[in-house]
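Need tokens for this chain, all 94 residues.
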Amino acid sequence: MKYPPQPYNFGFEVRDDNTTNYQNRAEVADEHGRVKGSYSYVLPDGFVYTVTYEDKKDGTGLTAVVRKEPSGINVIIPEPRPVEKLGNLVKKRL
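Here are the structure tokens for all 94 residues:
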């Protein structure tokens, strides 16, 4: 049995200044199964990458556009923690 497409929309946003974790996503679909959305994130290079996508359900498939822009954010890159090997186990020092 095939069910008809169900409209929906969802989204989320993360803004964590302590870890410079910034990301978001939004998507919407209609009763015909057409989907439109975007997501963004800031990478360690300091740029924000945004992907905008759409599937019009017209036979052309999913189209996507990627943008790269300066974020103006000083990204925090944590220092690696030392690791101790105990036999086959690995223990991280906190």
